[in-house]
Amino acid sequence: MTAAQALALTLACEVPLILWLTARLPHLSRTRVALVAATASCVTHPLARRAALALTPDMYRTGLWLIEAIVVVIEALWYLLWLRPGWRRAATWSLAANALSATLGMLAWKLI
Predict the structure, then answer these.
(1) Which terminus of the chain is more solvent-facing, meaning fewer CB atoms within 10 Å of its CB: N or C?
(2) pLDDT of residue 96
(3) CA 6 to CA 58: how far, in whole Å?
(4) Percentage of residues in the chain having pLDDT higher than 90
């Protein structure tokens, strides 16, 4: 999977999920939520991908979990900064979005 394909998959998973998770918060503009979610992924995804590609085979499993954990924290902080949902909500959104995209990404990797 190319870097562009991987980023497209991430955006296709994470942005709609964040929009869905925030749908009951009428004070948040749909456009703002979509832009914040897309920006979070566009910032963290290339860095995470580069870090994952640098892992050796014996480091891969542990390293991938560590990279994903760091991404979850960074994106939660991003949501907290730009959407002001509170820490618990921001962390939940980030964890859900990254769990979905990481799972689908791993499945796509196996299928390609």
Answers:
(1) C
(2) 97
(3) 23
(4) 81
pLDDT beyond 80 at 80 = yes
What was the pLDDT predicted at 11? 96
Cα gap 20→23, rounded to integer Å: 5
DSSP the chain: --HHHHHHHHHHHHHHHHHHHTTT-TTS-HHHHHHHHHHHHHHHHHHHHHHHHT--TTTHHHHHHHHHHHHHHHHHHHHHHHH---HHHHHHHHHHHHHHHHHHHHHHHHH-
Closest CA to 48 of 18, 6, 12: 6
From CA 34, how far away is CA 29, in angstroms rounded? Answer: 9
Q: Which two tokens stand for residue 46?
A: 């290339």
Residue 48 token pair: 């995470």
Q: What is the Cα–Cα distance from 11 to 37, expressed in whole angstroms? A: 8
Range of the domain at 14: 3-111
Which amino acid does the sequence have at 54? A
Q: What are phi and psi of 59, to 5 degrees?
A: -95, -10
Euclidean distance between CA atoms 66 and 76, whole angstroms = 15
